[in-house]
Amino acid sequence: MNVAIIGTGYVGLVTGASLALLGNTVKCHDIDQEKVNLLLKGRVPFFEPYLESIVQDQVTQKRLIFSSNLSTCISDADFIFITVGTPTDQVSGAVNLEYVCKAATSIGKLLTPDKSPVIINKSTVPVGSHKIVQKMIEEGVYQSGNDNVHFAVASNPEFLREGSAIIDFFYPDRIVIGSENTEALARLELLYRPLLDQSFNPPTTIPPRPEGFSQVPLIKVDPISSELIKYASNAFLAMKISFINEIANISDRLGGNIHDISRGIGLDRRIGPHFLKSGLGWGGSCFGKDLKGLVFDASASGYNPKVLTAVLESNSLQRTVPILKLQSYLKSLRGKSIGVLGLSFKPDTDDLRDAPSIEIIKKLVDLHAIVKVYDPVAMNHFRANYPSLPIKYANDEYDLVNSLDGLILVTEWDQFTQLDWKKIYDKMKHKVVVDGRNVLDKNCLEAIGFVYYGIGS
Description:
Number of helices: 19
Shape: elongated
Low-confidence stretches: none
CATH topology of the largest domain: Rossmann fold
Distance between the termini: 53 Å
CATH superfamily of the largest domain: NAD(P)-binding Rossmann-like Domain
Strand content: 5-15%
Largest sheet: 6 strands, parallel
Radius of gyration: 24 Å
Mean pLDDT: 95
Structural class: alpha/beta
Strand order of the largest sheet: 3-2-1-4-5-6
């Protein structure tokens, strides 16, 4: 099938490259010619495991094409995915649909009577946005003066975890499609049939199919329900993380062990073990943005979502926890050398959006600490985004810890658990470690001589 992707950000590029790997011809559009040139060379402008090798392979096979010419991309498309950015107002939480509306209008201007594409909104948008997309496409059609143009609009929310996006695309928990047009639903089901039946043979460029994984549920609903499924899923996961962090903070004060508590809770089948790992809270481009968007939509409809607003507040407060733990040992942090291990909001990505490291570093700077940082992937990205922060960048983990008064582990990269902690102990001035993700061996570090602080243990 012929597929067009409008926007080559995270969702658009993962979706486009993966659909090409399944045998479709995919044309990806972006207004940034420099980015297009980069992608034409098979280079991906962000870090995501497996993605670059897929892009390179599909570009070589000419199934994946990049262009800044929108007409070229959609002229023969059976499906047109809108995957542009939907930034959120940081104060009100309102979602900016400017880019979605521009994309929809531009598509409408270029539609012709000889094709009847399904136009899919895959950007995360407020509830009811499918109607706006429909109207903007119709406005574009009207401006073009074309007659007898036919199209259908559908919603197809994404559930891609950064660092695991390729796994999530090819082996998803479910696929959700929403439309008021039954033919559009049927055509989308056909597009996704190889995933639903798992009838494709996984190439070596992607992880192998999990053992026993054979069928993917398809959820066909109305557009409003599909949009709410996306918001509600992320809101629930964020709430679950914030809940276990609240329990961890209580455990700290009452003398419990959050590892045992989480296991005891998670064995209840009604709750489950996932997302019950305490730490510094969630970050990234989705949870905070979607929560704020849902709160805004609820408030605009006259409902006060108290649980959701509490989740946002709780997550923000959680980022002060490691600093309070350092202060309990070092007292004043003025002039103290503090190391931050990990910058990205989670491992296996260079994404800094809403990363806990940012607030922690800014707070340390405000407290006049001398801040040193290290991340295996996100260093250059951090330098470019925060050039005015007076911090030092280490060459590696052992360079980071030299003469430190305290160390905070912020991102749980696997390599951080494999470090030579005896060597680190010898290099540090004060031997205090705050394990912000509860991934280090507490007994081992304490046996070496460290003062160890976890989150809830």
